Amino acid sequence: MAKAEKTGMTAVLSRSVRRVIVLLVLGGVILGFGHRIETLSYQAYVQDLKLDAARELIEVRERIRTQIFDQILKLHELTTIISENPDISQTEFSARAAEFSARNPEVLNLAAARDLVVNIVHPLESNKSVLGLDYRENPAQLPKVQQAMNSGSGLITGPVDLVQGGRGMILRQPVFYAQADGSMTSPRPWGLLSMVIDYDRFVEQLEISETLQTYDVVIRELDTAGNVEQVIVGAPDIALADPIKLDFNFAFGLWELAATTKGGWPDHRPDFYWNWLLRLLVAAAAMTFASYVMRLSETRHLAEERLRTGIEALDHGFVMFDPSGTLVLCNEKYREIHGYRDVIKPGSTYERIARDSIRRGLVPDAVGKEEEWIRIWLEKREQGAFETEQRMSDGRIIRTSDRRMEDGSVVGLRIDVTDIKRALMAAEDANKAKTDFMGVLSHELRTPLTVILGHVRLARHFDRAKVARDLQDAVHSDPQTNAALAPKLDAVFAKLGETMQTVERSGNHLLTLINEVLDFAKIDAGSLSIDMAPVKIDDIVTPSAEQLRPMIEDKGLKLHVASTKGTLLADGKRIQQILINLLSNAIKFSDQGEISLVSRVRGEVVEFRVTDNGIGIPEEELERVFEPFHQVDSTATRRFGGTGLGLAISRDIAIAHGGNLVATSILGKGSSFLLTLPMHPAHAVKTAPAKVTEPA
Fold it and tell me: Are 133 and 126 in contact (CB under 8 A)?
């Protein structure tokens, strides 16, 4: 009996132990599960706090960005004045600065440093001691000054303690001399303009006082390595744990806004202890599991909401179809493009939406061929990627871009490119207007210049005119008068002929330049005429060489001409124009040696080669010499003259004949230009508009 009682007591004890163990395990599971829930909840809570803080701080950042740009624009107003008037006096500057300060009360003083030496300040009386300050001899300020000059866009420094008390922000903006329109040279630095603004007013204008009451905020400037250079707003020694960071990518440097809630992120959620009490009271695993499921559901809902918000934020139409072609998701912009129709809703098929658009006349291209248009569109979408531009009935141009995903779903963007297309058309119209203007202007200049040259040629031989002969007869009729006046009269006629010859030479040069501009205008418009006719090769080569032989010999150069026999189908005058241009360039850029013009026939191709012993062309410039208005050396225009159009026009004429014009050169030893033309081209190629390389 005693043994039975002992066994029963052991069983009870064993069950109790097991129960305790189970309870302990269950309690541990509940506590562990509860701790896990609390951890996730706390992370979600902090994440929500950060999300809310980020939204608010993004608005703060944009206000700060706007304020900074406003201050830069204000300073740029004064730099423009100095740039346009680099010799501005203290009086003029003070007058402008006084008006500027009246409009901007936060500005404490201004200082302009020509060649980095302060020579103008405002207000003058309280800042006279600054005059003559050479930044190059000021190690404390020189690094920031050099950074401002090198950046070209200035920078902001501060806050700094001011001598007159308080703190201020220093805006430094480099000043460059104003350039003439069309100048391709780099702007020349004038110096530096500095503006000191009241720091307290600067912070006040940022409108972040309420934000500073809720958050610990630090705005600091970072270097390229991410190290803090200076603290703009906030305590320099404040330590923020896991702060929200937002970047300001200014042209003058990188700023960072870092913030946490006041005193740092909370250690736990509100009602922390109460929640733990509830978990201890709630013993049912089902309730805990249900709570966990609801948390997951909430997280998923938040993710979907964020996805919808992001899609709605797009400035273009967004749509998604499932593998069967049924609309799953679209944003407001997509509905707007389709006129907010009831058919634009989840569950509608792509084909139904397309037919609705055609029925309402939104797709003019589909009129009369609706079924074929829909079939083609459906086939292209099945191919995986589809892009096209669609002109709407109201004149809008919508770019469609669809992509098929791995699961068969299709995502698409609808981008309104109407403004871009109109801007492109406007640019093309402006280019045509420019070309027409060049053509008209060249015609208008050539007409009076031709008349002038005609009269100059008559004046060059004035001694042959009747009035001149009558005067000579009158002088020769009297021996005494003849002896005294005849030599002087001959000298007058000789001087007049020499002067008119100089005028005629300059006029012919000007006429050549005008003709080049006129030809370029025709090429740019695609209207340069090519009159193809059989012409002997020698009838092209010999006249071209003989026309320039006097110029070659006057310069002390030798001319070598070798022509071949044969007949070429071409515009002889235009080919002569190319050869004369090549020979003229050879003369222009050669001071000694020989210039050669050689032609030969290779199969069905005629080659014309012009070679000189001139200054040569750098290898990297061999192709660029054929660009309109391009000069190998920026001083070439002043030294050698010319428009830089000759080679561009020559190549276009060669291409219009179905040929080409290429160059080879050795710097300092000479150049060789090879013109190749087919003997019997099928037809003249219409000249394409020349491409002008604009400066970067």
Answer: no
Helices (runs of H) and strands (runs of E) counted in the chain: 17, 21
Average pLDDT over the chain, rounded to an integer:
75
Same fold for the domain at 61-261 and the one at 529-678? Answer: no
Q: Which CATH architecture has domain 314-416?
A: 2-Layer Sandwich (3.30)
Q: How many other C-beta atoms are found inside a 10 Å radius of the C-beta of residue 465?
A: 12
Q: Which pLDDT band, with edges at 50, 70 and 90, does 634 fall under? A: very low
* pTM higher than 0.90: no
Taking the CA atoms of 448, 454, 459 and 462 in sequence, report the sign of the dihedral they define. Answer: negative
Amino acid occupying residue 69: F
Dihedrals phi, psi of 68, to nearest 5 degrees? -65, -45
Residue 629 has pLDDT above 70, yes or no: no
**Over pLDDT 90: what percentage of the chain?**
2
Q: What count of other Cβ atoms lies within 10 Å of the Cβ of residue 493?
A: 17
Q: Are 606 and 598 in contact (CB under 8 A)?
A: no
Residue bearing the bigger pLDDT, 20 or 207: 207
Q: Which CATH superfamily is domain 529-678 in?
A: Histidine kinase-like ATPase, C-terminal domain (3.30.565.10)
Instruction: Look at residue 255 and give its three-state secondary structure.
Output: strand
Contact 398, 389 (CB under 8 A): yes
Architecture (CATH level 2) of domain 61-261: 2-Layer Sandwich (3.30)
Contact 391, 373 (CB under 8 A): no
- Distance, in Å, from the CA atom of 200 to the CA atom of 209, rounded to the nearest integer, reads 11
Predicted local distance difference test score (pLDDT) of residue 694: 32
Q: Do residues 205 and 106 make contact, with C-beta atoms less than 8 angstroms apart?
A: yes
The beta-strand segments (E) located in 331-408 are 385-391, 397-404
In whole angstroms, give the CA distance from residue 318 to residue 415.
Answer: 9
The arithmetic mean of pLDDT across residues 568-574, rounded, is 85
Q: How far apart are CA 465 and CA 472, in angstroms?
A: 11
Share of the chain above pLDDT 70, in %: 74
If one compares 54 and 597, the residue with the highest pLDDT of the two is 597
Question: Are 638 and 665 a contacting pair, CB within 8 Å?
Answer: no
Q: How far is CA 265 from the centre of its chain?
A: 43
The pLDDT value given to residue 12: 47
Domain positions in the chain: 2-47+283-310, 61-261, 314-416, 423-523, 529-678
End-to-end Cα distance, the chain: 110
Mean pLDDT of 320-325: 82
Exposed/middle/buried for residue 419 (C-beta within 10 Å: 0-12, 13-18, 19+): exposed
Q: Give me the pLDDT at residue 59, please.
A: 82
**How far apart (Å, rounded) are the C-alpha atoms in residues 122 and 110?**
5
Evaluate whether 606 touches 679 at the Cβ level (below 8 Å): yes
Residues 571 and 539: beta-carbon distance below 8 Å: no
> Which one-letter amino acid corresponds to residue 288?
T
Per-residue model confidence (pLDDT) at position 689: 41
pLDDT in tens, 406-443: 877 887 778 777 777 777 777 666 666 666 666 565 55
**Beta carbons of 142 and 136 less than 8 angstroms apart:** yes
pLDDT-derived band at 461, boundaries 50, 70, 90: low
Long-range contacts of 551-557 (CB under 8 A, 24+ apart): 551/584, 551/587, 552/583, 552/587, 552/595, 555/587, 555/590, 555/591, 556/592, 557/587, 557/590, 557/592, 557/593, 557/594, 557/595
If one counts every other C-beta atom within 10 angstroms of the C-beta of residue 201, the result is 17
Give residue 589's identity as a one-letter amino acid code.
F
Q: Identify residue 661 by its one-letter amino acid code.
A: L
Angle at 590 between CA 586 and CA 593, to 5 degrees: 105
Q: Is residue 559 very low, low, confident or very high in pLDDT (cuts 50, 70, 90)?
A: confident
How far apart are alpha carbons 234 and 159 in whole angstroms? 10
